[in-house]
Structure formats: structure tokens, C-alpha cells
Amino acid sequence: MISGEFDLSIGSLIGFSGMSVTLLTTETNLGMPLASILTLIIVLFIGYCNGITVVKSGLPSFIITLGSLFVIRGITIAVSKIITGRTQVGGLEESKGYGIMSTIFSNSFTISGTDFPISILWWLFFGVFGYLLLKHSQVGNWIFATGASKESAELMGIPVHNVRTSLFMLTAFCAWFIAITQITTFGGADVLRGEQKEFIAIIAVVIGGTLLTGGYGSILGTMIGALIFGIVKQGIIFAGADADWFQVFMGAMLISAVLVNGIFRKKYAY
Known about the structure:
Layout: H1 10-28, H2 32-57, H3 61-84, E1 88-89, H4 98-105, E2 108-111, E3 114-117, H5 119-135, H6 138-148, H7 150-155, H8 160-186, E4 189-190, H9 197-207, H10 219-238, H11 245-269
Antiparallel strand pairs: 1-4, 2-3
Helix pairs in contact: 1-2, 1-3, 1-8, 2-3, 2-8, 4-8, 5-6, 9-10, 9-11, 10-11
């Protein structure tokens, strides 16, 4: 969103990636690492297609990726039903390479006798990587410039089309990474596992201070926004409340995010 683009297909790509790896592993007897790499190639290509379509058509990325969301999710559901007759597929624990994939993506580490999921380390790693990319690299400057004004960025010689397309591919990679973490944790895939993640991503980013119009934002703010969602979601469960209350919270935060975004936009304008 710092670049002014929206990618709503991330939720469907999570479900697609998880189901693709699971089906390739359980139905064709491929090793899980190889199935994951093949799926990553497919997902990156989908991200590339989204980016090229947005760039060439000139249409809003919100509309293009919303359509992509439905197409990808529909294909995922249809293919999984054709092959297995179900929308949930398990059995990954017995597949080749599951052990090493589980160690990398869903293992835990111990500090002072307390176990923590390895996903925390990945979260910190990507946070640091994103910070260095945006704040201390030429590519980061290109992303901010593209979000602030595509026309001005082009006049400065920035390859705006390549930047925009690359960011759609980066979003696709993130969806794949989340999917691998999920399927190694649960031992299987569900076509709807990424449902509504696209909205959570938008809300977390906006709460973190990123402008909907692009050109301004921070990785630290986004991490804080994501942390708020995680804490609230787990807090509702531990409190013994109905999990549906999280939907209420998400809706309230969506409205709040828009209001906060307006405040940031006015402040940034001056």
C-alpha cells in the first residue's frame, strides 16, 4: 500500500498455495520441498500476471485483484473437489520432506523454559528486512516515490512499471510463505484458510500509519498493527468469549482505520 497499490488476492493465494502443496505432495507423491518450490513458481507467476494486468490496463489494482481473488479461490475449490472430493486435505505428516519443512516453518524454540513458535523469528526477520529495504535502499526510495506520484516518479527515471509488478510478486511470495507455515503447523490444507486475510492486512497496514493513497508508511507501524490483531484474536479465545466477536472488532477497526488514515493524510499533506 505504500506504493499506492492494493492486492486483495493475497487471501485466495494463501488457500491456493496450501492446497497446491498438499495435493502435489499427497496425490503425486512429490517431496514437500519440491512441491513447495513448484507452487512458489506458480504463485509468483500469478502475482506477475496481476501486476502486468494492472500496469497495462491502467485500471485500479483494487478491482483487478478483487477479480483475481474470486478466480483463484474458485479454481482452488473446484480442483480440490475434482481430485479429492473435499475442500480440506490432510496427511502431510507422512509425506517426504515434511520433517525438514516443519522444522523451518513451524518448529518452536525455548527461552527460559518457555516455548515460542519459530514464526516469531520469521516475523522479526521480515520486519528487519522490510525496514532495511524501504529505508536504506534505492528500491525503497522507488517504492515511496511511486506511491507518492507515479507520474513524477517516471519523470525521475524510476522504472515504475517494474516496481509495481515486483510488489505484486512480493505479495504473492508472502501469501505462499503464510500458507507453508499453516500447512506445516496443521498437517493439511483448507481452501478457505486465507479467507478475510486480505482485509486484515489492509487494516493492520492502515492502523500502522500507511496512507491509503500511498507514498507514506512504515514497517514498524505495520508490525504493530498486525500485533494488535493477533493479541485481540487470541485474547478473545482465552477470555472464553464467542470467536464471532472478532468479526465485530475487525469491522470496528476497519472504520477506525479509515478515520485514522484521514488524519494521517491531512498531517502528511502539510
